[in-house]
Design the sequence.
């Protein structure tokens, strides 16, 4: 700080989110320099702060992977579950405690690979959980193996000549399975990531926010973008604002809110209505 | 008189350079010895928040001056 001697003024941090929502004693975190997971977590806690939620009213659930480590840093009720099982755990919590804000942060492998069936059923049930899918399009934690969302042609440890399979679209999957809030954003525009996560957190039903995120260490390094700055540039140049994940424009990736249905009943409420009747 | 101030926690910074990329006022520079960010031009800060919104390491705090004549 340069203005410490300014006698009249007091300098107040513009955001109180880190003080309120981080277990600061566990920082620095384990993520690599320039990894997008930290930016996304920042946006999540900014929204918790904006919404005025209490730490004890938020249940923050993760599975396994680099993304899975997020639960260790959040000052809330946190659960670090096994690989692919954040959503069934979150579902159980929401059924038992519908008064809680239940948030799950999933990797792409965790969420739609090993946990794919749980993802489909959470969507189908419209359980009141916010699922933030950190899609870095690779298995980061285990050394950069191909994931269900790795683009066709992209390199990974297990696809050194390029992935021959087509990739899975998280938003189309969520829509097809019945999620009632579905959006895709990317880390080159963190404020927009925060705005959309804020809407998803307030949604009464299963809300999916797919966040395209940079893994410079594996995805970037294997695909000609070892610097996080290059990866953010790629997101900017290869995405466009759309109304549907089916929209097409020069082979770019559609970004935006694709569904926001406020009429379909949320599962824990329907269940309670049934036995209270 | 400037209304904002900026600090970087060197213990948390991992020298990724994203703050340098997004700051519209060239507040940050990566220092030679280890590439970590230093707010060399903090007096130019306009409080746009972009640096701390993107910093993956929770290393940046932007302060707003309160209580004094702006
Ligand atoms: C049942 C089980 N199978 C496999 C693993 C090994 N494993 C750990 S993390 C991971 C993939 C992580 O990828 P992703 O979910 O995309 O998270 P990221 O690290 O990219 O954030 C795998 C396969 C495991 N821990 N448990
Ligand atoms: S391996 Fe990739 S996803 Fe994991 S912390 Fe490093 S950059 Fe992030
Ligand atoms: S964005 Fe954060 S971690 Fe990256 S160089 Fe700037 S202060 Fe350091
Ligand atoms: S708040 Fe804006 S102007 Fe100030 S240092 Fe951060 S990015 Fe630069
Ligand atoms: Mg991944």
Sequence:
């Amino acid at each position: 700080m340069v203005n410490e001697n300014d006698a009249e003024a007091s300098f107040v941090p513009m955001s109180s989110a880190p003080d309120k929502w981080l277990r600061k004693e566990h920082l620095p975190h384990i993520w690599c320099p320039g990894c997008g997971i930290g930016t996304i977590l920042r946006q999540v806690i900014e929204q918790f702060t904006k919404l005025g939620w209490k730490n004890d009213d938020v249940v923050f659930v993760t599975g396994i992977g680099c993304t899975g480590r997020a639960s260790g840093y959040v000052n809330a009720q946190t659960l670090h579950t096994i690989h692919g099982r954040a959503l069934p755990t979150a579902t159980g919590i929401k059924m038992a405690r519908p008064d809680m804000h239940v948030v799950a942060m999933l990797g792409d492998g965790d969420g739609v690979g090993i946990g794919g069936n749980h993802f489909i059923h959470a969507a189908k049930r419209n359980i009141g959980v916010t699922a933030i899918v950190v899609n870095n399009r690779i298995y980061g934690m285990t050394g950069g193996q191909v994931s269900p969302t790795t683009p066709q042609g992209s390199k990974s440890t297990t696809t050194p000549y390029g992935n021959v399979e087509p990739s899975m679209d998280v938003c189309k999957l969520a829509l097809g399975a019945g999620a009632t809030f579905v959006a895709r954003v990317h880390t080159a525009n963190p404020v927009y990531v925060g705005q959309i996560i804020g809407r998803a957190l307030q949604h009464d039903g299963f809300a999916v926010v797919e966040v395209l995120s940079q893994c410079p260490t594996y995805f970037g390094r294997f695909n000609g973008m070892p610097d996080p700055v290059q990866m953010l540039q790629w997101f900017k140049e290869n995405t466009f604002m759309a109304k549907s994940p089916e929209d097409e424009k020069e082979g770019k990736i559609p970004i935006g809110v694709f569904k926001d249905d406020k009429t379909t009943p949320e599962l824990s409420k329907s269940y309670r209505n049934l036995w209270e009747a | 008189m400037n209304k904002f101030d900026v600090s970087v926690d060197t213990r948390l910074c991992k020298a990724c350079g994203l703050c340098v990329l997004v700051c519209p006022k060239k507040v940050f520079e990566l220092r030679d010895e280890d590439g970590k960010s230093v707010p060399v031009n903090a007096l130019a800060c306009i409080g746009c928040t972009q640096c701390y919104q993107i910093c993956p390491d929770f290393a940046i705090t932007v302060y707003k001056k309160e209580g004094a004549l702006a």
Observations:
- Residues A 65, 107-109, 136, 138-140, 147 surround magnesium ion (ligand 5) (CB under 6 Å).
